[in-house]
Specification:
The protein has helices spanning 3-24, 41-49, 80-91, 107-124, and strands at residues 31-35, 55-59, 75-77, 95-100, 125-133, 142-144, 157-161. By secondary structure, the chain is α/β, with parallel strands linked by helices. The chain has a seven-stranded mixed β-sheet, sandwiched between helices. Bound molecules: S-adenosylmethionine. S-adenosylmethionine binds next to helix 2.
Length: 162
């Protein structure tokens, strides 16, 4: 498969998982967390799908499209591992959906980062809350959910907090 095909499939998988996650939290009140603003693509999609929710964004350095920059009071600027304890103190356990889109191209480093973030994210995620991730995540508090139809296992990861 060409790198272009692979890129397109990854984005299709991401969009399908975001849409499925948005549907899965219909009856789970709470905020939405976006880890990795990047260009702002997934933030913009979540904002469109979940317009009534408070969406908080975590990012080290904002470089998104100007239309996709969250308001200051919804942005945790800095390293995830430094912002997460602050977010726990400020938001408590009130998250219905968390999206980790944190991959840097260094697979081992990205997976290590996801492992380091997971215990903190679990302190924010409510029971029945959904965690979607571009990195594999394993924790006994999480139940792996089937991916949307047509999405190859391993392209994206979808979990529900028990
Ligand atoms: C794959 S990009 C996100 C793409 C974005 N969701 C989009 O749809 O445009 C990953 C982002 O995570 C951020 N990031 C990676 N590691 C980080 C860390 N330890 N702390 C804060 N931000 C980090 C990077 O700066 C980058 O913007």
């Amino acid at each position: 498969m060409s790198r272009l095909d692979s890129f397109i499939r990854r984005l299709e998988a991401q969009r399908a998982c975001l849409n499925q996650a948005a549907a899965l939290i219909t009856d789970v009140p709470g905020n939405v967390l976006e880890f990795g603003l990047g260009n702002g693509r997934t933030y913009d999609h979540l904002r469109e799908k979940l317009s009534r929710r408070d969406i908080y964004v975590f990012e080290r350095k904002v470089a998104a499209h100007p239309d996709c920059i969250p308001p200051d009071d919804r942005l945790f600027l800095g390293d995830f591992l430094e912002s997460l304890p602050m977010a726990i103190r400020r938001l408590g356990q009130d998250t219905a959906l968390a999206n980790l889109d944190i991959g840097s191209g260094d697979e081992a480093a990205s997976q290590q980062l996801a492992r380091a973030m997971t215990p903190f994210v679990l302190q924010l995620l409510k029971p029945r809350g959904i965690l979607i991730s571009d990195q594999p995540i394993a924790d006994s508090a999480l139940e792996a959910l089937p991916l949307p139809t047509g999405i190859k296992p391993g392209r994206y990861f979808l979990h529900r907090r028990r």
